[in-house]
């Protein structure tokens, strides 16, 4: 297992931010992952598990402890059943499933990060989410000190949430299993209105798999959501804030604030989210609160392509980014009475 001391962590994140770790270990097998976790736990040492680094905001002071980079590989198809090692690159996984003619994750194309991170956030985009096709998660349980298999129904999936996210110090994901769909080379039903418009079909229709993936990649690239080392608009953690889920009372108060601020004829986005809740758009809130694309004049700014992405323009610090995030959060709360929640995990820092 590779081991480095005072190792920079910024290059391991899509934001390119954060100070060094006391020690960085890179594991290439499940056995190495488990051994490194056990060693840290036995020593009472803080542990930071890193996959693709696409959902991490690491403090400028770095991480005082061991950072464990999961670099395991493994892609196994048995019919439409897929098993992935946690370290597999997710975007490459989607491409391979499309090439194999299997539907279920094609609209998750271009999402950066590793396969092992997808169940933690219940990654989703353009009408699909991991919870729809995932069947099992194999993880090391730090509480029980053994490897366990967690079936889908016990993963606690919700909007950008899971039991793994709720209890981040307990599980280290090793493998993820999916049941995909052999639809004769066609995608799953197109559920997202923007995707359907771009494809020229009605919601619910199917299209060739490759066409669905390529369309999603174009949509994501237009929003700066496909990694490009030469484009600072992609030096981000993707969507920095989740879409708010409002109770009936909160939604009524929100609509009153919108009418007061923008006029009675303005209708903000609203989607039924179950249990008497309504989901609205974080991007809409940010934009209407005055934080438009490209906002900011420092080294951390809102993306010029998408208001949900906070970007490092090349020389930002983590504190620069957090200062901007706080400004946006407070501005939205002042304008509409809604408090945005950050999607990326903060390490050694907080909003």
Automatic annotation (TrEMBL):
Keywords: Cell cycle, Cell division, Cell shape, Cell wall biogenesis/degradation, Cytoplasm, FAD, Flavoprotein, NADP, Oxidoreductase, Peptidoglycan synthesis. The active site is at residues 160, 239, 343. GO terms for cellular component: cytosol. Its EC number is 1.3.1.98. Its main location: cytoplasm. GO terms for biological process: cell division; cell wall organization; peptidoglycan biosynthetic process; regulation of cell shape. Pathway: Cell wall biogenesis; peptidoglycan biosynthesis. Pfam families: FAD_binding_4 (PF01565), MurB_C (PF02873). InterPro entries: FAD-bd_PCMH, FAD-bd_PCMH-like_sf, FAD-bd_PCMH_sub1, FAD-bd_PCMH_sub2, MurB, MurB_C, MurB_C_sf, Oxid_FAD_bind_N. Its cofactor is FAD. It is found in: Cytoplasm. GO terms for molecular function: FAD binding; UDP-N-acetylmuramate dehydrogenase activity. Residues 17-183 form the FAD-binding PCMH-type domain. It catalyses: UDP-N-acetyl-alpha-D-muramate + NADP(+) = UDP-N-acetyl-3-O-(1-carboxyvinyl)-alpha-D-glucosamine + NADPH + H(+). Cell wall formation. Belongs to the MurB family. PANTHER family: UDP-N-ACETYLENOLPYRUVOYLGLUCOSAMINE REDUCTASE. This is UDP-N-acetylenolpyruvoylglucosamine reductase. It comes from Streptomyces oceani. The gene is murB.
């Amino acid at each position: 297992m590779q081991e480095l001391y005072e190792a920079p962590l910024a290059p391991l994140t899509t934001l390119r931010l954060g100070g060094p770790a006391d020690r960085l270990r890179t594991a290439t097998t499940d056995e190495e992952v488990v051994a490194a976790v056990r060693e840290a736990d036995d020593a009472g040492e803080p542990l930071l598990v890193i996959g693709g680094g696409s959902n991490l905001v690491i403090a400028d002071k770095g991480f005082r402890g061991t950072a464990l980079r999961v670099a395991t590989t493994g892609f196994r198809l048995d019919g439409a059943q897929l098993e992935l090692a946690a370290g597999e690159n997710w975007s490459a996984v989607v491409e391979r499933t499309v090439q194999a003619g299997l539907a279920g994750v094609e609209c998750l194309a271009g999402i950066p990060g590793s396969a092992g991170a997808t169940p933690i956030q219940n990654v989703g985009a353009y009408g699909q989410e991991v919870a729809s096709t995932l069947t099992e998660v194999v993880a090391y349980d730090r509480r029980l000190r053994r490897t366990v298999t967690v079936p889908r129904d016990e993963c606690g999936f919700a909007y950008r949430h899971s039991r793994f996210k709720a209890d981040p110090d307990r599980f280290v994901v090793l493998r993820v299993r999916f049941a995909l769909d052999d639809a004769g080379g066609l995608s799953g039903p197109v559920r997202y209105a923007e995707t359907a418009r771009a494809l020229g079909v009605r919601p619910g229709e199917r299209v060739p798999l490759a066409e669905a993936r390529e369309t999603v990649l174009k949509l994501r690239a237009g929003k700066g959501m496909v990694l490009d080392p030469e484009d600072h608009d992609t030096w981000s953690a993707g969507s920095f804030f989740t879409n708010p889920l409002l109770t009936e009372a909160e939604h009524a108060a929100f609509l009153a604030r919108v009418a007061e601020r923008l006029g009675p004829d303005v209708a903000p986005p609203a989607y039924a989210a179950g249990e008497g809740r309504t989901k609205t758009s974080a991007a809409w809130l940010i934009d209407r609160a005055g934080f438009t694309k490209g906002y900011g004049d420092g080294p951390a700014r809102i993306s010029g392509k998408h208001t949900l992405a906070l970007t490092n323009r090349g020389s930002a610090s983590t504190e620069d980014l957090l200062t901007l995030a706080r400004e946006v959060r407070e501005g939205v709360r002042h304008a509409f009475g809604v408090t945005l929640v950050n999607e990326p995990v903060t390490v050694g820092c907080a909003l």
